[in-house]
Write a structure and sequence with these properties.
Blueprint: E1 8-9, E2 12-13, H1 20-71, H2 75-79, H3 106-122, E3 142-144, H4 149-152, E4 158-162, E5 172-173, E6 181-182, E7 188-192
Helix pairs in contact: 1-3
Bound molecules: calcium ion (2 copies).
Amino acid sequence: MIVKQPYYIMGKQTSRSFTLIELLIVVAIIGILAALIIVSVNVALTNSKIARTKQDLQTFTRAVSIAEANTGKALMQITGSGCSECGFNGSNDIGENLNNLLDSNAGVQQWYNDLQAIQNACNGDCNNINTMKRDPWGNPYSLDENELEFSNDLCRRDFISSAGPDGIIDSNYNGGPGYTWNCAGDDICVELPFATGTCANG
Ligand SMILES: [Ca+2]
Ligand SMILES: [Ca+2]
C-alpha cells in the first residue's frame, strides 16, 4: 500500500500555489505572444494586399496594350486625359492624400471613366478591369498619361500606381532624360508600354 507523503521544505509542510508575481509573469508572456501573433497577421495581410495590387497593375497593363493595339491610339487619346490623377486634390503628386476620397471626387470620376474607356477599347479582349476601381486599401489607382503630351512627345512614359498602405502618393514624374517615374515610399508603380513604338519599351 502506497501512502502519499506531504511535501516538506525545511521541515515545514507547504501547499503550492501561484504567487501574484508568477501570475503577472504568465499574463505578460501571454500578452507578448498575442502581440507577436497580431503583428505577424498584419504583415501577412499587408503582403497579400501588395500581391493583389501587383496583380491588378499587371491586368491593367495588359488591358492598355490591347486597347492601344485595337485602336492605334496612345493611352491619353483613349482616356481623353493627359493627367487623370491631377483631379484628386490638385496637380501635385507627392504628398497627395488619397484616403477617404468619395466616388464623386473629380479625380476618382476620371479614373472610373478611364477604366471604362480602356475596357470599351479592348472590345472584350481584356479582363474585366472595372473590378479594379480601387486598390486593396480602398483608394483609387493613380494614372498619369504622358505619351504624346507636350508637342506630341513620343517618348514620355505613362504610369499607373497605387499609393500603397499609407494612401499617400510618395512618387512623382521625372521630366528629365528618360521621363522616368520616381516610385518612392510604399507606393506600388508600373510603367505602361508605349503605343507608338518609336521609343523603346522598358
Ligand atoms: Ca501627364
Ligand atoms: Ca504611399
